């Protein structure tokens, strides 16, 4: 247990150490300040502006900014669908992989464009190299860049000054891609290649097994197909952009995507690095680093609690495993002693600690990549990833989207605190009035409404229920997790549910679109409203939004909204399953 605690603390310390300087750098990039990278990337940036006819200094209002986000996303969905539905006739397909169906193409395109990266397919058997590179990997970059762009539109609305607009979406997305996502992904790709992640265009290889196996029918299996292809270049942006869509079906549990303990650490740090850094970017942009630090601390407290609870649940395992002698709860220090814990669905090279840490981090962020199968977590261990997503993925959350979602909770907290003391609520010197509160409530409640509506619809369809591998509480947990993953734009899966059907593909596409673009529209409306307000002088009665009390209130409000919204559904799923096991 001490080793587990040490690993978790090391992870959080490294994350904070790397996030601070990265946050400062990202602020300089998005403000267009002079950087040494401009000597290398600057000509490419200016070339993009010329080809697209963009004036990077042009300012947009919130409606035009939103229209640009929507137009870019619609075109991206259409082009990606076209690529997936014609991949068999296109080059870079040495395995002759077939075209996808229209509903799977729609689901996949919407998934990657909304930064969800839900996968109703197994990547190595359903996607050609061209589809992986020109389709999915490209969206790993630009969908993340769109989230960063929207965040900076909000920041410009919140900070002091009377700018004419909230920036230019095309310039913001271009800078985020070229100066943040591409350099970081290039560095991480090289590190992963060094650790053994494949990066080639070779056909899949057939290799002999060291120990031949027999299938359920007694047929001997002596060979295995080993996927090749450009894997490192997709794994890097999938982690850094909080995308999570794996090159292989089992994602980062596959030894190609995640071959070593060092690769595992690098990928875990990457999936939270940019969202954590953006907290400090926010502090820098508004001229008060304490504000960014307060949000970072609130997120870190929630993440630490989630990691700790998941690790405890998986280390303790279930009563059935303990009774069968499969778990040594005392975790004796003898070299050959079983260290305890639920190892079902986990890689032995990572163990309980790294699997629990990854499960919490990937659902705290809008990432969704996995290095263990979440369906095999204990009921309480599986509850934590669901809760983290159901909170709106604001515990760091997606690139850009996590922080602007948390800022909606900040406005809600400021408003509630103002009611308690009888003062007009203010944030960063600007009054928070009914219009901003309406939009903040829309953001905070979109995720619960979308998730619960989706889970309810799936539970009512007999074909969905019949396709489950499990019944009773765990079966409902699989449905709830699927709706949660789509509605919260996460993309991880519990498994046990046949998700590749026309009904589920279309339904999840609708959930992903609503979960992504309704909050974006509301946050841009808030940015426009706040931008035009005067900054008030600070007085003795002004509520501090960067002290310990406010951090506590913010954490309380985030948990309160989640608890009130999802407790009944969770009680029918993981809570009921845990009580059933404990009898």
UniProtKB/TrEMBL annotation:
Primary residence: membrane
Transmembrane segments: 9-27, 62-84, 133-155, 176-197, 262-282, 294-313, 394-419, 440-461, 503-527, 548-571
Cellular component, GO annotation: plasma membrane
Organism: Desulfovibrio desulfuricans
Membrane topology: Multi-pass membrane protein
Coiled coil: none
Keywords: Cell membrane, Ion transport, Membrane, Potassium, Potassium transport, Transmembrane, Transmembrane helix, Transport
The protein's role, per its UniProt record: Part of the high-affinity ATP-driven potassium transport (or Kdp) system, which catalyzes the hydrolysis of ATP coupled with the electrogenic transport of potassium into the cytoplasm. This subunit binds the extracellular potassium ions and delivers the ions to the membrane domain of KdpB through an intramembrane tunnel.
Domain of life according to the entry: Bacteria
Subunit text: The system is composed of three essential subunits: KdpA, KdpB and KdpC.
UniProt-listed PANTHER family: POTASSIUM-TRANSPORTING ATPASE A CHAIN, POTASSIUM-TRANSPORTING ATPASE POTASSIUM-BINDING SUBUNIT
NCBIfam families per UniProt: kdpA (TIGR00680)
Cross-referenced Pfam families: KdpA
Cellular localization per UniProt: Cell membrane
Protein family (similarity comment): Belongs to the KdpA family.
GO molecular function: P-type potassium transmembrane transporter activity; potassium ion binding
Protein name: Potassium-transporting ATPase potassium-binding subunit
